[in-house]
Input
Amino acid sequence: MSVNELPALVDAEWLASTLPEGDIITIDTTVLSVARSGGGVEWRSGRESFEHEHIPGSRFADLLEAFSSPDAQLVFTRPDSHGFQTAARALGIGPDSRVVLYDNAINAFSARLWWLFRSFGHDRVAVLDGGLQAWKAAGHTLESGLAAPVDAGIFVAEPRDGFFVERADVLAVVNGELRGTLVCALPPENPEVDSGFRGRPGRIPGSVSVPAADMLSPQTGTLALTTQFDELADQDEPVITYCGGGISASLDAFALTLLGYRNVRVYDGSLNEWVLDVNAPLVVGL
Output
């Protein structure tokens, strides 16, 4: 690995020792969720959380707006090339920028933006293991307030194939017309799956259950990958991850990439899209 490249995952000590070099851009990707009384969640910008506390020098990425499609029916739908390029440039990102992402929860939003960056041709991007909580636990300094203004970057989005699939691809796997394994990143007992607040309860048939949160150490919040993906023996086998809206699925996809799986894609619409088709099959229970 050259000095300009980054490992996919970095820890708080590495970041603290590297930040003084001045060429790392840290980005807070936090999105907040608020439970709705009738079921489901309402997503809110994490900007207020960012302004309360963040890693010094960080910038804030709005995954609800700037890094999602403004015209899509479903929340968190990935942006097109122009939309992603515009959002990345607004954060001062250029083709040589080294970017470290974090959030204040389980790093699913960081993994989502990591996946998007790579899908648009930028490999110099890492996730901070354990996110903001790990940074704080290590005793490193924080700052509050607005992000400092930055000059627009010159990032150029170069879309790559092999990062996302559409509903038709998932249905082909379910029907045995395409080879692949489906991985559900939601917990089996998750109310998003079982309550039917989307109108139809359940998960996609034939899915392997690997809840994103189960990949984290309960003590530190850092990734603790052990046997979670043992059912996926072949690292060249096509794998499709999904969840409610493509966020937890991105953390599963990130973890699979760390483990050396070479054919991983995220179902971007996930269950939010799947249930819109009344004929799309679902199963309830384990």
Observations:
- The chain has two domains: 9-137, 164-274.
- The first strand starts at residue 9 and ends at 10.
